[in-house]
Amino acid sequence: MEKKLIEKAKKEGRKALTEAEAKQVLRRYGIPVVEESVAADPEEAVRQAHQYGFPVVLKGLGTRLTHKTERGLVRLNLRNKRDVLAAAKAIARSAGEDLEGYLIQPMIRGRREFVAGLFCDPQFGPIVMFGLGGIFTEALGDVVFRLTPLDEAEAGRMIDEIRSSKLLDAFRGDSPARREDIVRTLVGLSRLAEEVADITEVDINPLVIGADGRVTAVDALIIIGDRPAGKTAHHPVDPRELEKIFYPRSIALIGASPQIGKWGNMLFSNVLAGGYRGEVYPVNPKGGEIAGRKVYRNVMEIPGEVDLGVVTIPAAHVPALIPEFKAKGIRHMLLITSGFGELGGEGRQAETDLVKAAAEAGVTILGPNTMGICNPHAKFFCIGTSCWPQPGPVGLVSQSGNMGIQLLDFAEAEGIGIRAFCGSGNEAMITIEDYLRTFEVDDITKTVVLYVESTKDGRRFYSTARQVSRKKPVVVLKGGRTAAGSRAAASHTGAMASNIRIFNAACRQAGVVLADQPMDLLDLSAAFSSLPLPRGKRVAIMTLGGGWGVVATDVCVEMGLEVPHLTPDVIARIDGILPPYWSRENPVDLVGEFEPSLPGKILEALIAWDECDAVIHLGVVGRTRMVLKSLDAARASGQAIEQVFYDEGRKLYDGAEEEFFAFSARMMEKYGKPVLGVFLDDEKSKTVREVEGSPYKGIAFLTPERAVKTLARMVDYEEWLRKENARSVDGA
Fold first, then answer.
1. Three-state DSSP class for residue 701
2. Does residue 731 carry a pLDDT above 80?
3. Residue 365 and residue 309: Cα distance in Å, rounded?
4. Are residues 303 and 278 part of one domain?
5. From start to end of 492-538, where are the E strands?
6. Does residue 667 register a pLDDT over 60?
7. Is 728 contained in some domain?
8. Last residue of a domain, one of 107, 122, 146
9. 250 with 346, same domain?
10. What stretches of 559-597 show up as alpha helix (H) in DSSP?
């Protein structure tokens, strides 16, 4: 039926169904639409009004009448025949020749109005929307989105996400909204999107909640036409090809230079200084030597095989390399050079032509416009800065080279181990989705961290991220979240950023952990790669000072975590550890006790507690300098403090802190709960502390806010995983 209505509308040259037609379609998909009928003239409208019973609503109906309210074509609360006739006359005047009849409905009353709809995003395809409706839709913007298809569980989560969801509960004497009706509406819209490709937009506003909780769609608009084609999808790159790029046995540096500060020199220096064990062949038409190594005039002069060609020559000369690469058998190019798609216009065409030639020659290009790549596990650091992070489990890809390099520097300083890094640049051939897929199948990678400004294929990004998230955390920071940021991203990467609300919705639906700031990426990567996931949101806090405990508690509650009261059994256990004047409450204040072994005892009491899912400790580590400053103050006051006592104090507290981290790791192994810390002092504020022989590590941050925020994101991810498992079990 719906296809016949659409075909009829198309033949008539229409871009929308009439309201009556739209509601016929929606009713077939289980959406609770208002009872209504079509009247050819005012007299028939009166007869139908009597059948429904007053009051009624009268609307103008016509194939060209899509925005009726603005034209005064909707008349509400008509109480008698005279009202209906007067309304019909007024509607006829306003509609003029566009009027083809009248639509009459019973007057549906309700103090709560919501909106539901469907539209097609150029990047992500069909999107279902739900939120606060009526006059508040645009003013407050309290709406949520989901990619289709969606099931009943996902529709339920949409309902819970809007800020005004409490309006769906019992409200000022009105019954709770029939949740199942809203779920049916959202799932129906999803089915409609999947089954009827000619529908590009659906707007149900308002979706009225009556006093009895009944849900009714009283107004509906369906737009028909061709859906946005979106960008041409890139051909996926085999993960084995990417592995060869990150594990080259030999590289040619095309554009190598003896001049300090040039890219051709920086890459040469960093590759060799990083300890790369493969063959390195500098290439420059001038020949000669660099640091005692022969410089080849072109790649054909190189005597051995070359796995990876690293290119820094000007953009205009790059196309000429493709036939040389083909002849030499070089199948992979790391194209550092800029001057392509990020410039727009001619640069974009030059990039397109280069990709076409490379594909025909069997050459895979990483870049262009990239800061390089590194693989600490192979001692391969082909990047534009002297940075050598330790090998580890964090896969890092950044569409901004500079952002990526800064994150690498921080990772090195914070002790966060890197699996591999790539500044993906313009992603002319290898896209963010390809890196995701590669990290998914890589056994070393435990956490994937991405800085994203745009996606080449939104649907592929969503489906790939969701697939990877089921196996390991994917942490994303989105650049271009504002209009100004989107413009900057376009000039930077040569691709406009997607609508941030749609992107975020896709990420949440895919289980992606969203970061708000660059440092969040490091905090989350450190935690996900070093700690077990929490099994719930209940947090136990131990603190060296009461104020920190108060702050941490407030932040926990604000982030959706719980800080439960201590139970009698835990209180009794801690009574045997702390002085009698401790607070007997969560957070547990250590009441200024500095005995080195005491924090471990409290930690064990809390982590063993059945009503605790994670432990945060504040000020337990980083106390060494406080002790030494106290000794300095004693010396400055004229007291004699022997150096041996001073040295022993440092040794005692340094050793106690290392032992505490090791003990924390053992407790995490035993109980499967994460332990996060906050430094008392930033003198030794390295986030990650290795613990020999343990799958877990010690983690401590500089502020309570960072620790709590990180834990909250871990809880969100664990909840998503649990729901996904339930979905798999249910076969959805």
1. strand
2. no
3. 10
4. yes
5. 513-515
6. yes
7. no
8. 107
9. yes
10. 568-575
The beta-strand segments (E) located in 511-566 are 513-515, 539-543
Cα 597 to the center of its chain, rounded Å: 40
* Inside any domain, residue 423: yes
Nearest Cα neighbor of 231 from 341, 396, 357, 365 is 341
Per-residue model confidence (pLDDT) at position 483: 52
Separation CA 376–CA 390 (nearest Å): 6
% of the chain surpassing 70 pLDDT = 91
- Count other Cβ atoms within 10 Å, centred on residue 598: 16
What are the angstrom distances between the C-alpha of 440 and each of 14, 332, 395, 528, 562?
A: 47, 21, 10, 15, 33
Mean pLDDT of 411-434: 95
Q: Give the DSSP per-residue string, 171-231.
A: BTTBPPP-HHHHHHHHHHHHHHHHH-TTEEEEEEEEEEE-TT--EEE--EEEEESPPP--S
Q: Would you say how long the chain is, in residues?
A: 732
Residue 330 in 3-state DSSP?
A: coil
DSSP β-ladder status, 588-589 and 539-543: parallel
Distances (CA, A) of 55 to 149, 395, 512: 39, 64, 50
CATH of the domain at 73: 3.30.1490.20
> Tokens 């650091």 appear where?
381
| SS3 category, 420 | strand
Q: Which range has highest mean pLDDT (87-91, 226-230, 569-573)?
A: 569-573
Domain, as residue range, for 499? 239-528
Q: Are residues 14 and 66 in the same domain?
A: no
The answer on pLDDT for 262 being more than 80 is yes
Angle at Cα 356 formed by Cα 352 and Cα 362, nearest 5°?
Answer: 140
Q: For the CA atoms of 312, 318, 322, 325, what is the dihedral angle to 10 degrees?
A: -20
pLDDT score at 683: 57
Pairing of the two strands 614-618 and 539-543: parallel
Q: In terms of C-beta density within 10 A (0-12 exposed, 13-18 middle, 19 or more buried), how is residue 499 classed?
A: middle
* pTM assigned to the model: 0.88
At which of 528, 558, 578 does a domain end? 528
Could you check whether the bond before residue 368 is cis, i.e. omega within 30 degrees of 0? yes
Instruction: Give the chain's mean pLDDT.
Output: 90
Q: Quick one: 175 and 90 in the same domain?
A: no
**In a shared domain, residues 509 and 535:** no
pLDDT band at residue 494 under the 50/70/90 scheme: very low
CB-based contacts of 1: which residues, under 8 Å, 6+ apart?
24, 25, 28
Instruction: Name the least confident of 19-33, 223-237, 604-618.
Output: 223-237
Q: What is the CATH number of the domain that holds 712?
A: 3.40.50.261
Amino acid symbol at 492: H
How many independent structural domains does the chain possess? 4
Dig out the tokens for 506 from the structure: 């896709």
Does residue 732 fall inside a structural domain? no
The answer to whether residue 599 sits within a structural domain is yes
What is the DSSP code string of 31-90? --BPP-EEESSHHHHHHHHHHH-SSEEEEEE-TT---TGGGT-EEEEE-SHHHHHHHHHH
Q: Residue 698, exposed/middle/buried by CB under 10 A (0-12, 13-18, 19+)? A: buried
Kindly state whether residues 77 and 151 are assigned to the same domain: no
- Structure confidence by residue, pLDDT tens digits, 102-160: 999 999 999 899 999 999 998 899 999 999 987 666 667 889 999 999 999 999 999 99
Strand partners, 101: 61
Which are the contacts of 208, defined by CB distance < 8 A and separation ≥ 6? 108, 109, 110, 112, 113, 215, 216, 217, 218
Based on the fold, state whether residues 386 and 503 are members of the same structural domain.
yes
Q: Which residues contact 688 (CB under 8 A, 6 or more apart)?
A: 414, 415, 416, 417, 526, 530, 697, 698, 699
Whether 487 and 374 share a structural domain: yes
Token reading at 512? 């992606």
Within 8 A by CB and 6+ apart from 179, the residues are 156, 159, 168
Residue 157: strand, helix, or coil: helix
**78 close to 85: Cβ distance less than 8 angstroms:** no
